[in-house]
């Protein structure tokens, strides 16, 4: 605050109260959303970088708010994490996604985002096992996406959970690679099957030489560890072409499809197959 006048202080207090109130309202709303079944999943395809064949779908949560309409996860996931609701929301998401995926063609996978906070739950691995059993989905068709921030806290415990999840036959992806504290050495110490290059490195392709160099380095090192590489946020055919040339395995982005409701998946599979 440049001015120390009383008016400025009041303005800030009012703004803080408003955001605190907004937060409380969101927290209450999230609790009710679970009871009233207001969450839903949209799905975005992951395609083969060379053939553009659909290999899987990522589940992305939305909240059908009674007054505000569809609310994006960026507006409620971090609140759910800090007020202890992410466990229940995460279990709902995992179950819904596995149940939805049962009706897709047999080889098509489903990717589900896990919050780092969910790793504090000692029942996480058991919950994954139970959902696979209930849904009857082949474990190989489930991928769990985690961000590198999960490795910052108690990485011994996280590592043990990751190994137990992998032992179920489920795949693990490192999401948003390159944005956090990542170091390529994580690729050696953690059992990832896939890494997803963050869309900030895709945005300026094919012209930005730094982005090209990063994609090349990630693909090169991943290859030596047998890890597959997905590029996120692919919006143009030039980006798609470049990423295929750089030997990325899979692509995801608005070029192929925005996230869509589960009901639209059969049609989308047909349309992309004909393209
Ligand atoms: P994310 O896991 O990195 O998901 C990709 C986000 O990028 C999605 O946003 C997707 O709609 C968007 N996106 C996809 N293709 C493009 C593109 O070509 N261009 C651009 N500009 N954006 C693209 P969304 O659905 O709003 O999700 C945002 C974040 O919220 C996700 O980032 C993820 O971190 C989190 N999230 C979503 N669903 C869940 C969930 O079920 N559980 C948890 N814990 N987090 C979730
Ligand atoms: Ca993700
Ligand atoms: Ca991502
Ligand atoms: Ca992200």
TrEMBL record:
Residues 23-273 form the EAL domain. It comes from the Bacteria. This is Diguanylate cyclase (GGDEF)-like protein. It comes from Muricoccus pecuniae. The chain holds residues 433 to 707 of 737 of the full protein.
